[in-house]
Design a protein that fits this description.
Radius of gyration: 17 Å
CATH superfamily of the largest domain: HAD superfamily/HAD-like
Number of domains: 2
Strand order of the largest sheet: 5-4-1-6-7-8
Largest sheet: 6 strands, parallel
Strand content: 5-15%
CATH class of the largest domain: Alpha Beta
Structural class: alpha/beta
Number of strands: 8
Helix content: 25-40%
Length: 211
Amino acid sequence: MPGKKCVLFDIDGTLMDTEEAIVESLKSTMKKLYSKDYSDEELYFAVALPSKDVLTTLGVKDVDNALRYWVEQLKAFYHRVRIYPQIKETIQTLKDKKIKLGIVTARYDFEVEEDLVLKELLHYFDVVITYDEILRPKPHPDQLLKALEKLDAEPGDALYVGDTIIDYECAKSANVDFVLANWGRVDRKSNFKDNVKICNNPAELLTNIMN
């Protein structure tokens, strides 16, 4: 693990605490557009998947319009979104150490561009790889490999930090080391059958990468 030249991050549940906002805005969208009621547990899967895939899974036919509505609903929940404690300090330290930084996310371009909270972080990163129809989504390795290509880095030089089993499988498929961001609202270790490297707060990344 020590000696990594680049660190790649997922967004939701890793850089930012967005789970509640995503689920609540999706509940609102499904209720207002389709008069359907869902529990939090039924929609929690939405945190880890591309938005269009989420809507397709829920049986939505007019996905594009529903997605735009969902994004607008999400803005009403921005007050529930926060950057996790120690994230800014950690990524600033990594940048000071000349470690290349990237984002690999299931979000689309416009979901990144329109996120007012995320804008506080984007200037730290050398590359941001969003989801599009050309690249296969996580857990396929396509997005991670594209990030490495843009950063001129080999898989062995990189570390991917994420919060879901999908992030882990993506890293594994790309032969990139993975760290579980276990600093969310719940203990995420129980979602993993394999032994994975775990950090319980962002500052622990510094110890794992540079010591």
